[in-house]
Amino acid sequence: MSIDMNAVPVLSRKQVENIAEQVLQDAGRKLDVRFKPPIDIETIAEHYFGMQIIYRYLFTVYGISDLHGALLIWDKKIEVEESLSLGRTNFTIGHELGHWFLHRHLAASTNPDQFALLDLNSMNKSDQRSPITCRNNDNSWGERQANWFSAALLMPAKAVRDAFKRNYSSPQVFSQNILNAFNPNYHSEGYSKSLEDDEEFWGVLGVVNQVKKSGRFSNVSDQAMRIRLQTLMLIKPMRVDCRIL
Questions:
Q1: Beta-carbon contacts of residue 38 (< 8 Å; ≥ 6 apart)
Q2: What's the sign of the alpha-carbon dihedral 55, 61, 62, 63?
Q3: Domain boundaries, the chain
Q4: Which of 48, 148, 157, 195 is a Cys-bridge partner for 201, taking CB atoms 3.0 to 4.6 Å apart?
């Protein structure tokens, strides 16, 4: 059976981040490893969660375009698109771990309010054969939760803030237009200049790269770090004065 990712239990971003932070701490204790950036997400997946990671061309397997990863719950396997960059690969692994930790019980549960994680041995095996497949730009509620989980694992809030504070004394402000323009689905009418010609574009990337370098976040993508900085309000849109004169 498939899982409706718009019918998952309601968890706020903060709740998901707290869960991910607890997972990171518990993994460190149990594996006797001090996890710090760059976070070794493969070690966490394989040795803490007990997952097997498989890299292959997923379109040939599922016939779905733009597929980054898949979670086979019963088999405890994560499949990752082989052609992804290092940053996207790591984020995809963290994303699938988010589904495993937050959503796997829904494959066997008929109660939408049930959130206790179930023992896999008690699950109906036939219910688990359908993988959770994750496409790029899927904005369903469950996919967002998995993204938040992955971001918090790979880019812990404290580590990101510490790296930012080593370089900047206050949040960096950019126009809303330039921040929106990083979204591949955003189309701005009348925005004639290419992003590469805009100083603000390079300013945003400059902050992203400085934080990545200072914090040793070498295994995450620029896009993931930019979104993380915006989520933590370290990169902010310019305030617009809307007073009517």
A1: 216, 217, 218, 219, 220
A2: positive
A3: 13-154, 158-237
A4: 195
Q: Hey, what are 130's tokens?
A: 């359908």
Burial 22-49 (b: 16+ CB within 10 A, else e): ebbeebeeeeeeebebbbbbeebbeebb
Q: Residue 93 phi/psi, 5° resolution?
A: -60, -45
Please state, in angstroms and rounded to a whole number, the distance separating the CA atoms of residues 202 and 135: 28
Percent of the chain with pLDDT over 90: 62
**What's the alpha-carbon Rg for the chain, to the nearest Å?**
19
- pLDDT per position as a tens digit, 62-75: 888 889 999 998 89
Q: How far is CA 169 from CA 51, 156, 160, 165, 205, in A?
A: 41, 20, 14, 6, 18
Tokens standing for residue 176: 């809303």
Question: What's the rounded Cα separation, in Å, for the pair 171 and 234?
Answer: 4
182 neighbors 226 (Cβ within 8 angstroms): yes
3-state SS of the chain: helix, strand, coil percent to 5?
50, 10, 40
| pLDDT tens for each residue of 109-155 | 444 433 333 333 333 444 445 677 766 666 788 889 999 999 999 99
How crowded is residue 209: how many other Cβ atoms within 10 Å of its Cβ? Answer: 15
Identify the three-state secondary structure at position 46: helix
How many of the other CB atoms lie within 10 Å of CB of 51?
A: 21
